[in-house]
Specification:
With 207 residues, the protein is α/β, with parallel strands linked by helices. The chain contains three helices and nine strands, in the order H-E-H-E-E-E-E-E-H-E-E-E. Bound molecules: manganese (II) ion.
Length: 207
C-alpha cells in the first residue's frame, strides 16, 4: 500500500490507512459483526502476495465475521493477479468473477451478490438491472462504481431492487444514499473513520 506515492507524506499516509484498517478489524471483533463488506479498491493498485497475506492475516483474527470482497478498478483482476491463486482464510469470500455471482451464508440466511472488475473502466450500468429475489433470504449487494465510466448507477433503480442493503465503493466520499439501505463508505484515517463495512442489520450496524 503506497497511497500518494509521489508525495512526501506517502509513508505516513500509508501507515495511517493501515492503522485505520487494523482498527476496523478490531471494531468488527469487538462488536461481533456478522459481515465485513469490502466494496472494491481495498488496494489502490495490483496487490502483491505480501499485501494479500497481510490483510488475510487480519481477516483471520475475526473468524466470527464473514468477509466478502470484490475487486474495483484500481485493484482489478488481471491474468497474473496473485489473488487468483491465493488461499484466503475460511471466513473470507472473494467474489472474483467478472460476472455477477453470489455467496450464501446459511447460519445468517444471507446472500451477498457482486462482481469484480477486470478492466479499468466499465461504462455499462451493470448494477441497475439487478434484482433480489423474494425468497426469504437477506440479500446484500456489493458494488463498485457510480460515475460515468465506472458502472454508473441509478439510485432509484437500486433503491427498488429489493436488496436489504447495498454497499458501494469507488466514490471517495462517504454518503448514505438511502437510510440503512444504501451507502458509499470509505476507509480513511481518523477522524473521518468511515469504512467500507457495515453489519447486515441495524442491530449490529457499524460503518
Ligand atoms: Mn474505484
Amino acid at each position: 500500500m503506497s497511497p500518494d506515492s509521489d508525495k512526501p507524506w506517502s509513508r505516513e499516509r500509508s501507515r495511517d490507512i493501515r492503522d485505520t484498517f487494523t482498527a476496523i478489524i478490531a471494531k468488527a471483533k469487538e462488536l461481533r459483526v456478522d459481515c465485513l463488506f469490502i466494496a472494491g479498491d481495498l488496494f489502490h493498485r495490483q496487490p502483491l502476495l505480501r499485501d494479500l497475506k497481510e490483510v488475510n492475516y487480519l481477516f483471520s483474527t475475526i473468524p466470527q465475521t464473514q468477509v466478502i470482497i470484490i475487486a474495483g478498478n484500481h485493484d482489478r483482476i488481471r491474468k497474473n493477479s496473485a489473488v487468483l491463486s491465493f488461499s484466503w482464510a475460511s471466513n473470507v469470500t472473494f467474489l472474483e468473477s467478472e460476472d455477477v455471482s453470489s455467496v450464501y451464508f446459511e447460519d445468517i440466511n444471507t446472500e451477498v451478490t457482486g462482481f469484480s472488475y477486470y478492466t479499468a473502466e466499465i461504462p455499462e450500468p451493470r448494477l441497475d438491472a439487478l434484482e433480489a429475489p423474494e425468497d426469504g433470504k437477506i440479500h446484500i449487494l456489493l458494488g463498485h462504481g457510480g460515475d460515468a465510466n465506472h458502472v454508473p448507477i441509478d439510485r432509484a433503480a437500486l433503491a427498488s431492487s429489493g436488496f436489504s442493503y447495498i454497499a458501494l465503493g469507488h466514490i471517495h466520499r462517504p454518503e448514505i444514499l438511502l437510510d440503512k439501505k444504501m451507502a458509499y463508505c470509505l476507509i480513511r484515517p481518523r477522524p473521518a473513520g468511515t469504512a467500507s463495512f457495515t453489519a447486515r442489520s441495524t442491530r449490529k450496524s457499524v460503518r
